[in-house]
């Protein structure tokens, strides 16, 4: 009475072999797979494009203006999103378009912020919160101890330099002052020219490093004279 208990019920006249895909089903399956592959590729490319142009961007250092902290041919990643939420900070190493030729890309360090006044004398950098404030000497731990910051060259070291920054203007310098074309030569950096902040060194591998924000200290004694803009 249990002889039929293990049999599989199936519609009369239909073979179980018919569940295998036929030639037409295989073609449909191939095109469906190919279409999914194209969709995945497009999505990946869109994500990569968004990351590349809106979040991070790679750069290669060309030159010695940022020695000893960044060397020639060093491969960097700059992040571009943080400045959408907060302004650049003093000490940030930024990638930007050269104000006199936007097709050229520069790397420098932010020294002066909007509204501040910058003064250079006796090979030192002084910063005042405004043109009415007493300037204070800036201590820069990332430059070599022997570094002197002159206007353009040591031959002009007796020449004083003073500039007041307006809104959305930054004063930038290279860490290797004697080998750097920077705000001393071509003027202030507009905020609109900044591409992003250096976030990571990728290669050489022995220089692999993440970069945060630099903390500064000032010498308490002000410079010998208060800041006054030359007319």
What descriptive keywords fit this protein?
2 helices; 13 strands; alpha+beta; disordered N terminus; five-stranded antiparallel beta sheet; 231 residues; Umud Fragment, subunit A
* H/I helix tally: 2
- Radius of gyration from the alpha-carbon trace, in angstroms: 31 Å
SS class: alpha+beta
CATH superfamily name of the largest domain?
Umud Fragment, subunit A
Order of SSEs, N→C? HEEEEEEEEEHEEEE
Care to give the gist of this entry?
The protein is of the alpha+beta class and 231 residues long.
Can you walk through the features of this model?
Helices cover 16% and strands 29% of the residues. By secondary structure, the chain is α+β, with helices and mostly antiparallel strands. It folds into 2 domains: 32 residues; 162 residues, Umud Fragment, subunit A (Ribbon). A hairpin with a 7-residue loop joins strand 6 and strand 7. The protein is elongated. The N terminus and C terminus are likely disordered.
């Amino acid at each position: 009475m249990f002889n039929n208990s293990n049999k599989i019920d199936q519609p009369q006249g239909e073979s179980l072999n018919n569940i295998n895909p036929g030639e037409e089903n295989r073609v449909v399956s191939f095109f469906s797979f190919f279409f999914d592959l194209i969709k995945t590729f497009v999505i990946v490319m869109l994500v990569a494009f968004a990351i590349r142009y809106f979040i991070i961007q790679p750069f290669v250092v060309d030159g010695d203006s940022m020695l000893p902290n960044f060397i020639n041919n060093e491969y960097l990643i700059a992040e571009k999103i943080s400045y959408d939420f907060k302004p650049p900070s003093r000490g940030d190493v930024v990638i930007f378009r050269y104000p006199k030729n936007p097709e050229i890309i520069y790397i420098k360090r932010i020294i002066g912020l909007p509204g501040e006044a910058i003064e250079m004398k006796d090979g030192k950098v002084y910063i005042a919160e405004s043109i009415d404030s007493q300037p204070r000497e800036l201590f820069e731990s990332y430059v070599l101890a022997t570094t002197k910051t002159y206007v353009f060259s040591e031959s002009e070291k007796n020449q004083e330099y003073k500039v007041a920054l307006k809104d959305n203007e930054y004063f930038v310098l290279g860490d290797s002052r004697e080998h750097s074309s920077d705000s001393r030569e071509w003027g202030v950096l507009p905020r609109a020219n900044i591409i992003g902040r250096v976030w990571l060194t990728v290669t050489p591998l022995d220089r692999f490093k993440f970069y945060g924000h630099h903390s500064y200290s000032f010498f308490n004694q002000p410079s010998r004279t208060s800041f006054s803009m030359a007319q």
